[in-house]
Amino acid sequence: MKRNFKVYGMTCVNCARIIEVSLKKTKGVKKVNVSFELGEVEVEWNPSEISEEEIIRKIEELGYFVERRKDNYEKVFLVLSGISSLLVLATMFLKIPYHLEIQLFLSTLVQFTAGLKFYKGAYSSLKEGIGNMDTLVALGTTGAYLYSILAYLNFINTYPFFETNVFLITFVRLGKFIEEKAREKATEGLQNLFSISFKTVKVVKGDKEIEKNVREVFKGEKIACRGGDQILLDGKVVQGEALVNESVITGESLPILKRKGDTVYSGSIVEKGYIVVEVEKTFESSFINKIKNLVESTLREKPRIQQVSDKISQYFVGFVIIFSILTFLFWIVKVGDIQKAVQFSLAVLVVSCPCAFGIAVPLAVSVGIFKALKKGVLVKKSSIFEVFPKINTVIFDKTGTLTEGKFIVEKVEVKDENILGIVYSMEKFSNHTVAKALRNFLKDKVKGEVELSGCREILGVGVECGDYVVGKGEIWGIKSDNGYQIVGFGTKEKLLALFYLRDKIREEAREVIENLKRKGIEVILLTGDRKENAKELARMLGIDKVFAEVKPEEKLRIVEDLQKRGRKVCMVGDGVNDAPSLAKADIGVAILEGTDLAKISGDVIIHKLFSLVEIMEFSERVYRKIKENLFWAFVYNTLFIPVAAGVFHSYGLYLKPEFAGLLMALSSVSVVLNTLRILKS
After folding, report:
1. CA 473 to CA 434: how far, in whole Å?
2. Is 499 within 8 Å of 486 (Cβ atoms)?
């Protein structure tokens, strides 16, 4: 059995690691994936060994809340600690009898109710050998509470400060509540995408509409879609008409009129009108579910910069605890002031913010992935945001990349038209755009397919079936001319037919090339086409460097050679015939015509060529936010830990523990709010 649980209370990647490590050790649990960015835990388990309730209980024992129980607990504890803080404040400024006893009661109440979450989190983290924010807050509040108890009982000759742990727990909870709401806002779009499998559709049964979960709808059933509805299943319109926004597929925001017979894709939005769609694919095979699975996979992969920040976050807690102990010892041994020793060592514990390091990268990456998706760009590798700003060389394939790849057969030379059936049947063994064009041209000119055996595609050449070959005209010594792509058919000794095809240059191709060159990026054309055709295209588009008549393995070698010379290479192709070189490049960008994601390789999938420029510029903005977040996390901790330790106490600059806690909470909030600006870019 497999399910995604919405989990609240994860403050950084260390929390996610604690849940993952703990659940993996649980008997009956087969697989665990935790996404801190989305606050989701995907669990696969054996129902005969462990139940869903037991998994939920296990997560909550670690100090986190599963969706259905979250609101009741979190809001009650926040209100409780808030009211207690106001009452403690009143006892501090008003002459109230037994004010210390009232403070003691309120301090104890808050410590072991609203503060219980931090104890659970600290216990879980220490049990797994991983420190997190809960560890520091639990130590800080416990230290303040115990110190005040000892002072109240006159074991220490100083005044208790019961307000410290009350204010501290309130400030931290309030800060984390604000941070969580901001994070939900930042990942709202992705949350909607991942919850799509729980949505329902209206299935048309005669003159009635029955609501069904999208997973329970079968091929052949009909669903009704009205203005404002998201189309959740792929199919054909069988009734009505509507304006449909397909931006998630094409990146084009203008709606398209869909009528009877037109295909509609899941993920599209009906802006106006009413249509009935006959379902052609179940939800599992739908376009939107494939995107969902790809995005989930992308979020699990960590870019190098995140691996570094995770390492810092992982060891940071241990460093802070040691520094807090040293602070305490310094003020006790050197100064002899126990009150300052306790106050400053506690302030060090709670001012330190491992969360800022933990959320700096993953949150920016997840927001970036969603923003790109809204523009019709599918990010399959999260490291692209880090790598794109370093790209200095872009290699373009020709056919289907700089050109539309929609070849039209303009002329045919053949003596015996009976052989066209063999050509038609052979070309089904190739996915190349030329092969597709020939099949489309021949489908109405042949009676049917011919039975063939021993057929194989030779990349960069054509298709071979026994003695027959269909491929480049050069095989028979015929060169392409006047912009034609010439394809021949025959045996290696005898030419039996010639097909003259022409392709069209993409309208935005020249603008894209000019844009890249203005950025100082070297642009290269790399194609298997003849030199004459390649050079003519390069001249028209303003490309200075051309490699023509190269086979797929030679393309791979050229990419490798550029990388050896220190170039950061982005390869742009169709994602099918260029798969090896796209995989080898620092970033592989594939242009997808249609919705068949399964056949496309590449780190980024785009639908129009200009999206290359957009994703490059957008990646720079995302990477800039990542660096800003990490810089803030570093500066914050470098600046405020010494202040909290009392380094500047002689100048009157120091932090009380409760205000140190407030600063810690606000530092995480600032990282989230800064990341939210990506959505507005």
Report:
1. 13
2. yes
- 545-547 and 222-226 strand pairing: unpaired
660, 347 Cβ separation under 8 angstroms: yes
Give me the residues paired with residue 239 across strands. Answer: 276
The CATH number of 377-403+505-606 is which of 3.40.50.1780, 3.30.470.20, 3.30.1540.10, 3.40.50.1000? 3.40.50.1000
CATH class of the region 200-285: mainly beta
Fold of the CATH domain 408-502: Calcium-transporting ATPase, cytoplasmic domain N (3.40.1110)
Tokens of residue 527, six digits: 């194609």
What confidence tens digit (pLDDT) does each residue in 248-276 have?
776 666 789 999 999 999 989 999 999 99
Residues 297, 277: contact at Cβ < 8 Å?
Answer: no
Report d(CA 108, CA 88) in Å as an integer. Answer: 12
Catalytic residue status for 397: yes
* Per annotation, catalytic residue among 310, 397, 578, 603: 397
Q: How far apart are CA 532 and CA 505, in angstroms?
A: 16
Q: Which tokens in the block code for residue 344?
A: 């400053």
3-state class (DSSP) for residue 375: coil
Specify the pTM: 0.76
Residue 335 has pLDDT above 80, yes or no: yes
Q: How far apart are CA 607 and CA 376, in angstroms?
A: 7
